[in-house]
Structures are given as structure tokens and as C-alpha cells.
Amino acid sequence: MVILTTPPGFRPIHFEEAVNQGKHIFMEKPLATDPAGIRRVLDAAVIAKQKKLNVVVGLQRHYQNSYKELYKKYKEGMIGEIVSAQAWWNNEGVWVNKRQYNQTEMEYQMRNWYYFNWLCGDHIVEQHIHNIDVINWFKGGYPVKAQGMGGREVRKGKEYGEIFDHHYVEFHYADGTVLNSQCRHIKGTMSKVDELIVGTKGSIYAGAANIVDRKGKVLYQFDRTKENNPYQTEHDELFAAIAKKEYKFADTENGAMTTMTAILGRLATYTGQVVDFEKALNSGMTIMPTKFDFNAQPPILPNEDGFYPVAIPGVTNYFS
After folding, report:
1. Cis omega before residue 30 (within 30°)?
2. Mean per-residue pLDDT for 167-174?
3. What is the pTM of this model?
4. CATH domain 2-60+229-250 topology
5. Distance in angstroms (rounded) separating the CA atoms of residues 81 and 87
6. How far apart are CA 20 and CA 43, in angstroms?
7. Could you tell me which CATH class the domain 73-225+255-281 is placed in?
8. Domains of the chain: which residue ranges?
């Protein structure tokens, strides 16, 4: 088997090669940074299934006992039908790797990969995908369109490349359900990483691992002593299936479509427009370089002052 944990921009080509080589695979989320990459992953997933290759994606909530029990209670009808949802990934952000002497532009972007979309996808894709995935999982599907807003309110330095420091997105599902999604990387602000699913009879508070009725009465509380480490469990279960020569895991399609959901959110916040899921997925849009080499030119370059172009809502347009 192989483990794919490089910056996400490389996931499609690495996954494709691993499948061609007939390897079982663990790969971290997200699975691409653009729609063309998602299509490449989905095409390789068909071959992986034909070869009966186990594939686990690092959306670990699917392997976490509390989330699995909450999902079971939902399927049993405890909260009724889902009418809306909220998801958060708000915190202070992550590391910055500063430019070193004599680095090529490609190497600098590789080392500071979190701040370049072709490598990372922006933090709505690289981190907030976890919360978006939970809602897609419980909904049993993916949004049909999205609109939102975002920008660079605090992280404006050249070391932050091109990504936004905040996003707010309305994801609309086919049945009219709306996911209100927010993620933020700004120091000194409220920190919250959680999901809330509102139903006709009650609500799921994922972080608290409980279900509450419309009057605030707790209908179900997960026993925290039965919680597991999902990061370990996802590997344990994959390794066990391989050792037993069982074909058990095919996480790729959900991982790809949830990644596309997060990309949809980025496209919506960058443009300020309503973006259609299927149109974006089938657009062929790519932000990847044409050559992979430390001496090649990356797809985005700084100006003479060292600053990178940043999307401008209302001006930036990917689908004209």
C-alpha cells in the first residue's frame, strides 16, 4: 500500500499512479485543488474499484465512534428531516515558512505551500473540508450551488501568498436545505470547529456529541468513555482489510465530491457569484503548473514588490 500525504495539489497525479501500480491507498484530504483534478481522481477511482483496491481518505469523522452513533440516531429518525445546517472552522491559522536565500520561486511556494491555491486550495478546502464533509455525509449528497463572501482582512502580507483569511458560504442542496458555512484564520478571534444539524424534531450538536429536541431537552448523549482515536482507527481498519485480503473501503468518490464542494465554496467567495456545482465540476478548470520541477515556473508569480495577485469578488470570473 501507499500513503499519500504531500500537499493536496499533487494528490490527483499520485493517486492515479498508485492505482495504476495496483496499490491499496490511504490518502489525506483534500483530494485536489481544482475541478480538473477532481475529474482525474474520479476517473482513477473507477479503475481502483475494478482492481478492488482499498482506498481510505483522511476524513476521519467517518471512523469516529461519536459521529457514527450520531449518524445512526439520525437515520433512526431522532431529529426528523434535516432542514438546515451550520459548520465552522474558525481559529488562528497555521504555520508560515518564510522565503530562504537562493530558493527558486517554485521551491519557495512548495515550502510555503499552504498559501498557494494550486498546492493547498485555500483553507476552506484544506481544513474546512472536514466540517463540510460531515454535513454532506448526513445529507447523503452534495450541494447543487453556492454563493458567499470572503477576503483578506488581516493576513495581507506577501508571506500569505494568495489565499483569503475568511470565507462565508451558503451551500444549497437540491431539496432546499442550506448549509451556512464559515471558516476564518485570524488571530485573537473566536475559535470554533464544529457542526450543527437542525431537523424537524431536534438538532445534532456534533461537538457536544448530543441530540436536543425543539424545546432544548437532551434526547441522546454519546458516552465519551467510548470515544476512539479516529486518526488511528482509519489506518487500523485499512491495514486489517489488506492483511485479510478483503475489499472493504472505497472512500474516493465521497472524498472527491466533498473536496469539490469545498472548491465550489472557494469559487463562490472569490467571484462573489452564485456558482453551479455541475458547471464547475465539468468546466475543466485547472490551476496546476504544466511542468513539475523545482526550476519550473509555478502558475502564479509575485509582482516586483513580492506580492501575489489575489481574487477580487465582483471582478474575478472563472466561467465567463
Report:
1. yes
2. 98
3. 0.98
4. Rossmann fold (3.40.50)
5. 18
6. 12
7. alpha beta
8. 2-60+229-250, 73-225+255-281
